[in-house]
Amino acid sequence: MLKELLAYEYVFPLVLGFLFGIMCRIHLLRTDYRQYPTYPHGKIIHISLGVIASALGAIAIPALLKENYTAVTFLTVAAQQFRDVRNMERTTLTEIDKQELVPRGGPYIEGIAMVFEGRNYMVMFTSLVTTTATIFFHWWGGVIAGVIALMISRKLRSGKTLSLIAEIEPGEVRMEGRDLYVNDIYIMNVGLADAQEIIREQGVGFILTPRDANAKVTIAHPGQRQAILHDVATQLGVYTDTGEPSLSPLVKRDIQSGRLGVFLLPQEKDVERATSVIRAVPILESVFRMPTKTRMVKKEL
Amino acid sequence: MTGLILSVITTNKDRIAGGVPIFIESTTEKMQQTAFTLEKILDAMVHEVSDDTLIIVRHK
Which residues of chain B make contact with A178, given a CB cutoff of 8 A? Predict the structure, then answer.
């Protein structure tokens, strides 16, 4: 039985492609400070989907070579399937976000959901490339192609971070009567004397200066700003509770220069760590803008 | 995101009138105390409009 199975010419390429696909998914499935995907069930879901994606990717080329053209239509079914992954992630995260002390915000959630869909396609791509190379260049060709595909997906794994587009400096949190400022940027009006006192003690301020015109537009996006607040809150904790709306971290923009004033209330008042956290905040893919690429206006923004 | 004024707390009742609950207090300290209580009860933020008037606003 086993002998018969191995005699089938495409078994080895299929297995190799399948294995590389699964390796790719496991390699890309990293649970970091965000603790997402959650362990263990979130991981089980995504590894299972990765296995399916990998099988589909591996089977495409052998099916074509066998002149089984209808099998290729399965790929379209797969695409549909993985679009649902995105919906699933979006729904889950939006539900969680409603109960968060410092919410992620819509664009951050969209970014995460998009990553989950995209990674399944990376898995399909890896297994497809590996299988094809094995068929055409023997097993070592498949392994080389698989390793290259893994390296490509590794490179595509992490996006850009905020430190690339903005300079981050600590700023001074200041209460002028009822008005809260970070350096010269007005943040909000705080009416309660009690809250003012806590802000004076626990507040930490930062000034983000955009490096160019593109950065100015990108960091102005409220979704990007919410992502900064959420990331700091997950990593340094947050000095607030439900029913304490006066103690909410906030980012405001200096309209004239495009700089951001970031007011934070971390549980741990550690300016250095907060700086490195802000530097590592991902630039949200759906928020990233490049106005300098326009052909309409050539002058400096 | 629209703000909604839920309540007004003042020490100067001559300047205040309108369609939301108004709390009139004798001193600034008492005004602050009432505002603190109301903030916790209503889960809405206290803002200072002028030295003698606070408003409670729900922001979301």
Answer: 47-48
